[in-house]
Amino acid sequence: MSANSQRKVASDAIGNSKMHYEGSHKEKSNYGLTTRVALARLHDDIKKLLREHEATYAKESLYRKLRSAFVKPSDTPLGWPAISATLLTMIALLIADAYLAAICVAVILSIDLCVVVRENNLRRTEIYRKTRQALADIRLAERDLCGDWQPFNYPHLCCPISPCVSLQWTYRDGNIVNLPWALLVRGDHIVLRPGHITPGPCTEVNGKRKFEMNEIYGPTQVNDPPVRPSARAPLPDLICILQTTPFLDNLHVILEQALKRPSTIYNQQRYLLVTKYIQQWGFICALFITFLAGFMRIHGLSSAPNAGRHPDEQHYWKYVFLETPAAAVIPLLPLIFPLMWISMNLWGVARLQCFLKVPQALLTKDSEKSFEEDLDTPTYDYDNISLLRSNVFRNWLQLWYGDSEVLPRSSNLVQVLGSITALCCIDKKGILSWPNPTAEKVFFLHDTDDERLDERSTSCSTLNTESNPTSQAASKDGGIMAEVLDLTHDQHCPFRLEFDDHEWKAHIKSLKPLGLAILLNTCSPLTHAHYAQFCGHVTAVAMLDKDLVPVTNRYALVDTSLTSFLHGRCLCELAKQIGFTDHATDRFTLEGQLASYRHLQPEVVRRDIRFARQLQLSSKVKVPFPHSLSVVMRENPGGYLSLFTQGTADIIMDFCDDFWDGKDLRPLSVQDRKKALDFYQRSALTAYCTAFSYRPLRHGIHGALNGSQHTGGPIAYLELPPESKIRMQHVDRAHCDFGSGHGHTKLSHSISTDSLLFSEAKDDHDINDVDGCFEMQCHQVFIGMVTMQYQAQTDIVQLVERLERACIRFVHFSKENELRSRVFSEKMGLESGWNCHISLLNEAADDKTSTNTGAPAAAAAATKNTYADKAHSCGAGFVGGISIDNNDDDLHRLLPPHNLESSKALSSSAPCAISNPDEYQMVQLSSTPPTRRSSASCGDNNSMKDVSLQLADDDVQNKAPADTTTNEQRQSDDSAMDENCRSMSIITESTEQSAPVHFDMSNRAKLPRGIENIRPHLEQVDNVPLQVSLFTDCSPEATRQMLDIMQSYGEIVVCLGSAASNANANIFLQADCSIAVEPLYPQVCQDVPAYTERNLVNNKLRLLRIKRDLNGEDKYGSHEPYTAEELLETGYYGNDEPQMRPMQASGNTVSPVYLSRVLNSLPCSISVCRDEPLSLVAIIELSRRFSSGLWNCIQYWACCAAALSAINILSTCLSLPPLLTPLMVIYLMCVPVPFIALSLAHIDVDPRTMNRATGKKQTEYDTRVFGFVLWCYGCKFIAPILVMILSYCAFMAHPIELIDVDEDKLHINLHIARIFSFLGILLHFVTISASFVDRDHSLWQRNPFRNSIWSFTCGCILVVHIIICIVQICLNDNYINEACSIWPAIVFLYSGSLLSLIITEICKWQEIKVNTRYQRRARLDFGTKLGMNSPF
């Protein structure tokens, strides 16, 4: 029942919000486009731009297309030098009459050229094909699916603004919807709200105003601060027509920059090893040595056996200078290497695609586990995923055909993830953190004397009470202490909370009013619409002063790059924890809403600049914008009116004269205010702090200040003077109870309920004037404060830890300042010691802001130049700005005259000032503590009677008992009062331990500040900026530049960002590869979903199924809506709820949010939703294993090629014929060697894979590394080379006659030598390959036959060639007889494989030792951030 009621309230709230925003535009219902027309226009605009780029590519000449396929050696496995060498070799073979070998080389080269040219064409057009896939989804939605789209399929209209989500109010199908930015089209009618940025060039419907792209709608000038409370009308919402389709700008950049990503480390290593060392240097060396040996032979400087002489002496030069060098260089030619390289890379991508699409069974959680139990077990079982080779093969074929879903050619995901050194996340809310902040601390004041009287001091001592000697001393006099209760957030639920202290219920009486205030104000669905509009007004007002950050109680507006963002905040769960049920607010009705704000004084700005310097912060501390929102609630039955207020503590404390201690009202002393304000000021540095207050009312309010109750009528907000002491000069003191029962001649801190009720106008009419509304907010009762903070999601914390083990740096590019960013980075587990963060904010921009510390008018003038081209003057409401509409008589009477005097800047600090009388009146307080009159009201109704509390346990109204006893009033002296009024440091002794910041928030290391100083620091000082895990104050351009700097220093960067933001396209394109994540959308309340797609689930799948049925392709029967395979892919197999889900959904649900994600993620290899079970660690581990196997394969292939070439070169140097003929070498390098190499690409699962460090790109040539590689791999293959040459010399009895051989039979021995050597080379290669199976273990530690693919491949190759060898020998009797006479050479040839194995294992053992040392050094370098300016 409660759940249904909750959903009903949420739906009603949605309806009320829509009625509010749509009611003001009833006459404009014909505005806007239909969804079908808008999607068609979006499709046509994208298609037109795509065709332009495709036409530009088609107009390129054939020469340029061919040249682009071979000109960049790191991107192509076949370069111009290799092609030229192959052509020369082919010509030499033709001249030498080796026609068959020449034809084979020509055919292989032709195939290579075709494949490489085709791959280059597919790579250059890859982004075009992916864009066409997106166009297909848009066309499908336009024709068949958009008819089912409803307004609730779009994000909620009052959805809190997040920097990770780009939304725009737009008319679609006659309704205002919160449209994703990417779906906006030319001709759309958008609703431009104050403080918001235009999505593109647009014109107001009446043609009066025009806005450029990214222009801020707000005032260009600010009025002088009022000297008395004044009504301010908000800027009106403007209906504008978009002139262009905004997404086209991003698409143009994507299509232009998609091919400009840096080369992967494996492409660079492949170029270095294969292209440069083997195909260029090796080819030249082999050619030079063979030509030199041939020159010596031709001039008789060396003797050759008769078998080595060409039968035709006239053509002997061809044999010496053409055929012999060709046999030596053929192994060094590319041959089928380009095919093998391309196929292997596509196979790796196919495996990754299959891995992402494999449905994973959901591991059921134990729902009965308590809150304290460890719930960090993985939701999906990644270790037992098996990839069917049939599925991988099918994906592989699709990639060969040109599938571009993961951009396998322009951004090789497997190679990048296999060598990643930095995972950079550029968005926080909804990706790293939960989308909504949750309560972290609760602050309130209570009396410890009552606890001692109740004999509860023992239990109180265990509470999390934050006090100090000052408050302890105060407790001796009055016993008032500041209590702070901590709350813990459930990591598996976005809103669930629990108090840390098990005895928190001892403070239940202090918490009950706070819970009720939360439900009636903060989380009331009736206030969402009005509050969203108020936030827009505050954003527009605060926009003119960059020293101010509007931080509102439910929505925090964070100033970043001239943009204010709204962060949704819901405290319903806190109220539920306190004990309120879903029906606690049923007896209350909303009578009115009153919003107030005021500007800060310049002294506050200067104070915070000093504070920033004190903390050695690189960016200035932003000051919360003072504001409040009050709701007038009527309780039924009885009709009692109550005012519940929430806002920033500085303005709330000015409204309050008393506080609720859980039993009675107590006056707020100077020390009490100091405690509360210190807690607020320190909490506001790193969290979002909201204060709550209450008072009973006698009269309601009506008119413009009443908020949104009068639908369609004018709305006004109350602007207060910036100096809080001005408040007392305008209070009608005749309505207040002065000095009754006190020895005071000024306003007492103790206000009885009678004075609260009768401090307003004496008539019985509702209040409609500014002074009356202002007085209504005075004399409130302070309830408490709540701090909120964004909590890191558990999987992110685990990801950071596991990435650190793998020596992958997690780098967070935060848009917030250093304080907030650092607090959240610690929640994720990032290091926060020395050299922990760098601000990318330019010094010039911040210095310009730092000088802006004059009066608010001067601040506005200083920033006017900055915003002049980004904002238009306000359309209504601001004094001196424009005239008021004559029809709005009520609003016209409320607005102040145009000739108000500007207030003078006073010395008092606004957030620290308190309510006190005129500064010219000096009053001496009595030295003896005066008695305080009872706070009980007349009759049976006490001061808190109107706070009706319905608790979950008993559903009984709890009234605060009337306290008829007198209490001792606390004494405060004039010096403390005066000092508090003047100026108060943000850090005081009284709250030194009560602040939420328990560590040094500054970064004392001398690190560069500003993106323009990063590169000079790296060049001249140290590399610490490359090892920092947190960058703050990041703009999109600064983030892109920082990624570029990281890449230029060898970092392999993967970017993780929001798929719903329009600012990430350039950053996605800069990274080596990118992963787009659809973030969790913030909710206006936990009971109101951000959006829902229940009515659209699998709509694309259903449509395709219907079309198959109509085409007669149904094999399963029309009663089955889906096939079993399709159900497994979507996760809905056998149940309504997903039981099996792949890491990446197949896109079977086409919705507005889905289309937006598809468009924004075009430059990304992977695009997923945040709630999908994507495991970055799992795909990195898979990519590492495959990349390691790929490089293992290439290394073995290169070593075999070098060994074959060395054998023929040594044969030539010994004046012997080539041991291997050109045809034999071509066969070896095209069939057995590639097959053995490919079998080595299989790497078994090893838990140590994710504990190794991957190296950075080598930006400089390292001779030591080259020498080690040459020594290590040369030694492995030196044994087969020597064994082959010695056996060959024995067969030919030259140059040393080891066996008595008849010279007349040397030609027979040559054939026999080649037959047995061919098999011997394969045997040696297979033996050596055993050490390549597992590079980290010796043969006696791990059996190589565990690799079944390698075992089968090598076994088949050996068996086949043994049979061929036996057949060749047996077919000729002369071969048999001669072989029997030289059997020792044959035995030595084959038994030498054991020697090769021993030498290879010795080299491998040494290689493992070197790699172990390298891993230790790499891990040490990864974990060390000590630079030149570090303290050690």
Describe what you observe in this structure.
With 1432 residues, the protein is of the alpha/beta class. It has 43 helices and 33 strands. Strand 4 and strand 5 (210-211) form a beta hairpin. Helix 10 (337-357) crosses helix 11, helix 10 packs antiparallel against helix 36 and helix 38 (1232-1239) packs parallel to helix 40 (1306-1333).
**Which shape, going by the Cα principal axes?**
elongated
User: In percent terms, what proportion of residues is strand?
Assistant: 5-15%
Low-confidence stretches: 1-27, 363-380, 455-477, 549-568, 726-763, 848-999, 1114-1122
**Number of DSSP E strands:** 33
**Structural class label:** alpha/beta
Overall helicity: 40-55%
Measured on Cα atoms, how large is the radius of gyration? 39 Å
* Biggest sheet statistics: 12 strands, mixed
Distance between the termini: 64 Å
